[in-house]
């Protein structure tokens, strides 16, 4: 089995004015995504577009570990941008760009039988700032109550949680869905009504702007 999931993620969120969409997407799909996936430790990757929340575009790279970003090959790519990268990258034409490097905290170890799965057709990404006085209860509830319940909802394939080691805010949750309508389903809504996290943790946590965002995969293209 080819390993496609590691212990870390690199995510790049950005908004792009619609007049730049064609050039931006062409650069990302034809040049940038293949270039990044050629670097050691980059196991898989895909691009997504928001159907709820934001920023509007999201690139997700599955990393063997966060150390993949320290390889000479990756550093050479970053320090020697192509001409198209200089013109069309998020740093050139993006707005509200967020770059997050994340290390996995849940599950503690990935199931060897699932690490070969490809990039999900749809994602829900939550980016949370959790006060230190409720972190322990937050993590306990998420891992032992909320996530097992969410995984029972039809169409919810996997849930992984991360510490953000570069970027803000400090926590990130990635839900992998069969399609982007899962969080609109009656089953998802019923589960949300039963959620008592805020009562359990005894406090509140904050979401970043646009979070939680629901994203539809656009590259590799979906058949539906």
List keywords for this structure.
Alpha-Beta Plaits; globular; alpha+beta; 224 residues; 7 helices; 9 strands; 29% helix; eight-stranded antiparallel β-barrel
Describe the model.
This protein has helices at residues 21-37, 72-79, 83-88, 90-93, 135-150, 186-193, 197-201; strands at 8-16, 42-52, 57-63, 94-106, 122-129, 156-166, 171-177, 206-207, 213-219. It is α+β, with helices and mostly antiparallel strands and 224 residues long. It has one domain (8-219): Alpha-Beta Plaits, CATH 3.30.70. An eight-stranded antiparallel barrel has the order 1-3-2-9-5-7-6-4. A hairpin with a 4-residue loop joins strand 6 (156-166) and strand 7 (171-177). The chain is globular, with a radius of gyration of 17 Å. 32% of the residues are buried.
Number of helices: 7
What is the H/E order?
EHEEHHHEEHEEHHEE
CATH class: Alpha Beta
Structural class: alpha+beta
Estimated radius of gyration: 17 Å
Which of globular, elongated, flat, extended, rod-shaped describes the shape? Answer: globular
Helix content: 25-40%
Mean pLDDT: 96
Strand-residue proportion: 25-35%
Low-pLDDT runs of 5+ residues are none
Please give a quick description of this structure.
This protein is α+β, with helices and mostly antiparallel strands and 224 residues long.
Helices, strands, pairings?
Elements lengths: L7 E9 L4 H17 L4 E11 L4 E7 L8 H8 L3 H6 L1 H4 E13 L15 E8 L5 H16 L5 E11 L4 E7 L8 H8 L3 H5 L4 E2 L5 E7 L5
Antiparallel strand pairs: 1-3, 1-4, 2-3, 2-9, 4-6, 5-7, 5-8, 5-9, 6-7
